[in-house]
DNA sequence: ATTTTCAAT
């Protein structure tokens, strides 16, 4: 199908490991939510930013996270086209510190505003969120990432 | 040429 080809090309364009996200103007967030315990369950979904209204990460916190049961453990995986901005990274850090039942793995397509020192600090803080003995945050870049500096 | 970032018309 032609539409499948176009969708595939668009997906690859959005998740491409480029240095600057010129012309993309969007961020996609695919998530896998695994509930642990007696009744293990997996749900999957996809979110995108609402432009100026809310970034994709905020959309997750506003619409998906409230449906989680704080007495259950969750393994959350995000596949995001862009790394989070400073505000979103801070929100992720806070959320992981506040909710010890969550474990979040983020797979990042490309970096967002990596040159900014504030951005680097926010990502480092996010990566070390949670208790040091049992960190509940993992951050991964593409294996062939050309632009990532050491975190 | 890599060419400027989760829109604004």
UniProtKB/TrEMBL annotation:
<dbReference type="InterPro" id="IPR002125">
    <property type="entry name" value="CMP_dCMP_dom"/>
</dbReference>
<dbReference type="GO" id="GO:0005634">
    <property type="term" value="C:nucleus"/>
</dbReference>
<dbReference type="GO" id="GO:0016554">
    <property type="term" value="P:cytidine to uridine editing"/>
</dbReference>
<dbReference type="Pfam" id="PF18772">
    <property type="entry name" value="APOBEC2"/>
</dbReference>
<keyword id="KW-0378">Hydrolase</keyword>
<keyword id="KW-0479">Metal-binding</keyword>
<dbReference type="GO" id="GO:0003723">
    <property type="term" value="F:RNA binding"/>
</dbReference>
<feature type="domain" description="CMP/dCMP-type deaminase">
    <location>
        <begin position="23"/>
        <end position="126"/>
    </location>
</feature>
<dbReference type="GO" id="GO:0004126">
    <property type="term" value="F:cytidine deaminase activity"/>
</dbReference>
<dbReference type="GO" id="GO:0005737">
    <property type="term" value="C:cytoplasm"/>
</dbReference>
<protein>
    <submittedName>
        <fullName>Apolipoprotein B mRNA editing enzyme catalytic subunit 2</fullName>
    </submittedName>
</protein>
<dbReference type="InterPro" id="IPR050610">
    <property type="entry name" value="APOBEC_Cyt_Deaminase"/>
</dbReference>
<comment type="similarity">
    <text>Belongs to the cytidine and deoxycytidylate deaminase family.</text>
</comment>
<dbReference type="GO" id="GO:0046872">
    <property type="term" value="F:metal ion binding"/>
</dbReference>
<dbReference type="InterPro" id="IPR016193">
    <property type="entry name" value="Cytidine_deaminase-like"/>
</dbReference>
